Amino acid sequence: MTNVSRNRPLSPHLTVWRPTITYVMSIVHRITGVALYAGTLLVAAWLIAAASGPESFERVNALFGSLIGRLVLLGYTWALMHHMLGGLRHLVWDTGRGLGKYESRKFGWATIAGSVTLTILIWIAGFALRS
């Protein structure tokens, strides 16, 4: 008996696939989900500092108000918006709509554009209310 497995084709590796918007959005959706766990720890730290007293609250506010802190908060805001829109996209897909090649591509690009737009609008509103 010959070795049958020797003649079988190998499974395609990731390097064979051309990146499409739908699979990139799937990966980014998972990454933003993980980032939201870390960001939620930051929200919890802020709430704990607020409950601990003015000194702790000022230290955390100073950290979040620094350039690095603001960049982290900007990234957290974008991850939250992107993950939310990705979840809405999946919710629409669960109804059986938007599953076509072109519709799913449009949904992917709309998720990117929407998350960036919402992040910018949230930060503009935040700075406007701050003044």
Automatic annotation (TrEMBL):
Transmembrane segments: 20-48, 60-81, 107-129
CDD domains membership: SQR_TypeC_SdhC
Classification via InterPro entries: SQR/QFR_C/D, Succ_DH_cyt_bsu_CS, Succ_DH_cytb556, SuccDH_FuR_B_TM-su
GO biological-process terms attached to the record: tricarboxylic acid cycle
Keywords: Heme, Iron, Membrane, Metal-binding, Transmembrane, Transmembrane helix
Cellular component annotations (GO), alphabetically ordered: membrane
Compartments, as annotated in UniProt: Membrane
Cofactor(s) needed: heme
Function, as annotated: Membrane-anchoring subunit of succinate dehydrogenase (SDH).
Family: Belongs to the cytochrome b560 family.
Protein name, UniProt field: Succinate dehydrogenase cytochrome b556 subunit
